[in-house]
């Protein structure tokens, strides 16, 4: 059975990458949560998708130009009128919520635009502090960032993210001793799935919001489906 991961938390109905969206995902019993991390000016690992705070908060500017004390004053749910104030969470705050739960966390390192050198060490330090080594998957579109993480912590599960039509993705992933491949779901045509399975690569795909796609991927034995609507997937897979 495919696992169900809430993309940026339960972002179909709640403000993405907020503690509220994570709690709501936990409430409906997801197998995992996907979230995005970036670094502030004072090297705090924060959970936010974009390099700027413009789209998701009532502020503007680059995440990396603010200290966390400055950043936490902005409202990450300002587009919604019924959820009150929700600050940009830190990864540590999130770990405190899930540390004793049976939930997998897929931490996406947003290191493609800015490399945030050192973010791998900071994330790893927090994983170790909360003993979450066996409950995380680290992914990134920046595969150099994944190799850095793998070198620091060979025991931690990692995944290469891709939105391209890569040939021999299984062979590529396996050759770097990376356990997972995280493709955009449209790219999972049968021959791609077959090649990945040949190399025993775990497949976690995104962002699957349509029932037909969910069923196809489940039938194909895809390991995890990352969706904004984990409720829909749960009902479908019952
Ligand atoms: O990690 C899967 C997915 O979140 C990658 O794309 O842009 O939603 O972070 P994005
Ligand atoms: Mg993401």
Would you give an account of this structure?
By secondary structure, the chain is α/β, with parallel strands linked by helices. It has an eight-stranded parallel beta barrel with strand order 1-2-4-5-6-7-8-9, surrounded by seven helices. It is globular and about 50 Å long. Helix content is 32%, strand content 19%. The protein has one domain (3-50, 89-237): Phosphatidylinositol (PI) phosphodiesterase (TIM Barrel, Alpha-Beta Barrel).
SSE succession: EHEEHHEHEHEHEHEHEH
Number of helices: 9
Overall mean pLDDT score? 98
What is the CATH-assigned architecture? Alpha-Beta Barrel
Query: What is the 3D form?
Result: globular
Q: Distance between termini?
A: 10 Å
User: Under CATH, the topology is which?
Assistant: TIM Barrel
**Structure ligands:** SN-glycerol-3-phosphate, magnesium ion
| Helicity level | 25-40%
What percentage of amino acids are in beta strands? 15-25%
Poorly predicted ranges (pLDDT <50, ≥5 residues)?
none
- Side-by-side strand order of the widest sheet: 1-2-4-5-6-7-8-9
Structural class: alpha/beta
Structural domains: how many: 1
The level 1 CATH classification is Alpha Beta
Per DSSP E runs of 2 or more residues, the count of β-strands stands at 9
CATH superfamily: Phosphatidylinositol (PI) phosphodiesterase
Largest sheet: 8 strands, parallel, barrel
- Using only C-alpha atoms, the radius of gyration works out to 17 Å
């Amino acid at each position: 059975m495919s696992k169900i991961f809430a993309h940026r938390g339960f972002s179909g109905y709640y403000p993405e990458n907020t503690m509220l969206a994570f709690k709501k995902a936990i409430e409906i019993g997801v197998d995992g949560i996907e979230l995005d991390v970036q670094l502030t000016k004072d090297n705090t690992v924060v959970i936010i998708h974009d390099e700027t705070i413009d789209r998701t908060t009532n502020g503007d500017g680059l995440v990396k130009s603010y200290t966390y004390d400055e950043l936490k004053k902005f409202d990450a749910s300002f587009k919604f009128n019924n959820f009150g104030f929700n600050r940009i969470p830190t990864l540590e705050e999130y770990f405190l919520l899930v540390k004793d739960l049976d939930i997998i966390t897929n931490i996406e390192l947003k290191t493609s635009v800015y490399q945030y050198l050192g973010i791998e060490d900071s994330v790893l330090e927090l994983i170790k502090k909360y003993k979450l080594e066996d409950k995380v998957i680290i992914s990134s579109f920046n595969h150099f960032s994944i190799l850095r993480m793998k070198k620091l912590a060979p025991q931690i599960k990692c995944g290469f993210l891709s939105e391209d039509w890569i040939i021999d993705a299984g062979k590529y992933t396996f050759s770097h001793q990376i356990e997972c491949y995280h493709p955009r779901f449209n790219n999972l045509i049968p021959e791609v799935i077959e090649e990945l399975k040949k190399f025993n690569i775990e497949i976690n795909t995104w962002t699957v919001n349509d029932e037909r796609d969910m069923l196809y991927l489940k039938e194909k034995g895809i390991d995890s489906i990352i969706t904004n609507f984990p409720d829909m997937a749960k009902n479908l897979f019952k």
